Amino acid sequence: MQRFTGRVAIVTGGASGIGAATAHRLANEGAIVVITDINDGSAVVTQLTDLGAAATYIEHDVVNSEQWKHVVDTTIELFGRLDILVNNAGVGDLLDIEQAELDDWNRTIAIDQTSVFLGMKIAAPHLKASGHGSIINISSIFGISGGFGSSPAYHAAKGALRSLTKNVALLWAQQGIRVNSIHPGFIDTPILDQARGTPIEDMLTEVTPMGRLGRPEEIAAAVAYLASDDASFVTGSELVVDGGYLAR
After folding, report:
1. pLDDT at 221
2. What rounded mean pLDDT belongs to the chain?
3. What residues act catalytically?
4. b/e map 193-226, b = 16+ CB within 10 Å
5. How far apart are CA 203 and CA 208, in angstroms?
6. Do residues 183 and 242 make contact, with C-beta atoms less than 8 angstroms apart?
7. Count of CB atoms within 10 A of residue 229's CB?
8. What's the pLDDT tens digit per position in 158-185?
């Protein structure tokens, strides 16, 4: 199915994990994909171009507004349009509120929350001109629940994305941009490498009703749905993809 033929997508944090899987899924359905990341995304670009897809990588610190402008301007210069923005870049933290310092808090909020504000604001004119404008913000189940009582900055940022998504969706509901959030559960990405084979991995699977970690491709499938015209009447929505965790 080629739902994105002729459309252009920016995927932040696209060098690995959910971002890389999303880049593959969108490209496989015909999209031109601009992968941005603070880490080198050229390997993902090579994989896509070897499959006949069109893709490019731009180094990008998502907390820097000038770099956001560069990414969007370069996308327009190269491909002439922008249809899809996937705000996926983010970081986690493990400190509880008594351990965390203000610098820790500010860093997590900047990367996980402020970056999304910048991306939506700077990309807006081009997404409005698309005729198929779609923004997907990758939040978390911890933007909805209190989790395990740790990582307050991460929870606060991901919860803010939930509300920010709805707020901007209402503003743009008749201006040509749909805005939705996805709330992944525990996903098998490189972030979990240090937990493999440990009691932490066992705990994450045990608290997930389906009894396993999610796959990045399963989040990418949700992104592709929300980015497509199949979701043409869906905006301001939150799509939970968590193996049943929040249903408990």
Report:
1. 98
2. 96
3. 154
4. eeeeeeeebeebeeebeeeebbebebbbebbbbb
5. 9
6. yes
7. 11
8. 999 999 999 999 999 999 999 999 999 9
